[in-house]
Amino acid sequence: MLDFLKTPIASFQDFLFLAGRSFLNLVRRPHYYDDVFLQMDIIGVGSLAIVAMIGGFSGMIIALQMARALNTYGASSQVSAIVTLTLVRELGPVLTAIIVAGRNASGIASELGSMKVTEQIDAMRALGTDPIQKLVTPRLIATAVMLPCLTVVADVIGMVGAYLIAVPLLHVIDTGAYWATSWRALVMNDLTQGLMKPFLFGMIIALVGCYYGLRTTGGTQGVGRSTTQAVVSACIWIFVVALLIDKIFVGL
Amino acid sequence: MPHDPILEFDKVSLRYGDSWALREISLTLNPGETRIIFGAAGSGKTTLLKAVIGLVEVDEGRIRLFGQDVTSLRESQLYGLRSGAGVLFQEGGLFDSLSVGENVEYPLLNRQAGDKEISPEDAEKRVRDALRFVELEQTFDKFPAEISGGMRRRVGIARAIVTEPPLVLYDSPTAGLDPITANTIMALVAKERDVRNSASLIVTHRYQDGEIMSDFRYDPEQEELLPLKNGADQRKRDRTKFIVMKEGQIVFFGTRQDLENSTDEYVKRFVRREENHAQ
What we know:
The complex is a heterodimer of chains A (252) and B (279).
Chain A: H1 6-24, H2 33-72, H3 79-117, H4 120-126, H5 131-169, H6 175-185, H7 188-214, H8 219-250
Helix pairs in contact in A: 1-5, 2-3, 2-5, 3-5, 3-6, 3-7, 3-8, 5-7, 7-8
Chain B: E1 7-16, E2 19-29, E3 34-39, H1 45-52, E4 60-65, E5 68-69, H2 75-82, E6 85-88, H3 100-110, H4 120-133, H5 149-161, E7 167-171, H6 179-196, E8 199-203, H7 207-215, E9 216-219, E10 224-227, H8 234-238, E11 240-246, E12 249-254, H9 256-261, H10 265-268
Helix pairs in contact in B: 3-4, 3-5, 4-5, 5-6
């Protein structure tokens, strides 16, 4: 009766197995440091421009919308506090993760998928290398380290973007008050969840990308399918985990 | 002189769902011997090759490679054992992100457990030797995407033999290649066998590949393949045996002569001559 659940449960089990082996490899030799730095460059430095741009525009949009809404209550000077909290707690981590998922979960899935269908993964195993150690663990480390960094960049540029709207354009607050209000609005709880989220999202993006890449079958068409599935799954899991973390931190 | 077999399959079976990928496969391979494996698509040829080095786990039976039971080893324990076998994958299996030289060097630098460290100078020398063996030394710095399909296959052979393994597995070494390139590849496979006395397991669709392995030998002085003489070279001829697989089972095992004399309709399908003969 519950046969339809077999496939998704088996897939999730395989995913957990892959995740477990990737984490175990963190303490096992050999370590492929060159691959870690290469992936940090591809994922981190490569995503910097788009993340900065999206962060900046998000800050501007929130500032515009909030300034108008807050003006109704005569509280438009609170725009900096609202923008800061929204960006640091939620929008910074989630938007950055979605961008990196679109850019890198797809990249990882298509790269590993192509390697799978052209027998490069089997060749790697045949030549005495563990593909999880060589391919998955470096991507896991690189994404988990770089996504929090990218999120900080997106948050800061978002706040600068909001500043440009709130101070020079709308004149709802002066410069000193803008930054002082922003700083006062933040508490440790906000910073903790603002950094913990991208750390977990980074792991999700790397593992989901690798998982779909490594299970690719069916030639080039299969690579396309894996890429799409990786992005969709990573985005869904990002929102599910965001909700769970919010539930934990809002209760604190 | 008796040898310990390099490879032994003892009633090996593997099922994918309702169909048999391998069914009670038993075979033995000694040093210097060649097995040519024919079979329709999906008959289990590639699965058999992958099972040799534990790339697929079998359900039943025992596989002994270099005296060790592959079926009882964990993946992490297999890495050392696998480095004793060279593998040529159907598409070459070259890493796109590495240059030709780095691809061929890969098995030398990644061999595990018990091997001596190899200096970069020694590694490069051996890589160049292997590439010279397949007559592609000039491609050392190129990337796989920059060379032709036949050249990729030859680089794959160089990578498979750079560690001078006692066993080389070839998965469809000539598939999709023109007859001239295919014959060049098979000449290299025969050369590898005769120069180093390595054992080979060759999956192929071309009857002519088996003919080259069975009826020709590489002459190092003339640097070309010469036909084996009837009678005098019979022992060399007998080192090459043919296997025909159907639905995961071995339905034929014997010499080229036995294969040509077979009356089985399925087996006869694989005995087919082509216009272009071995070079």
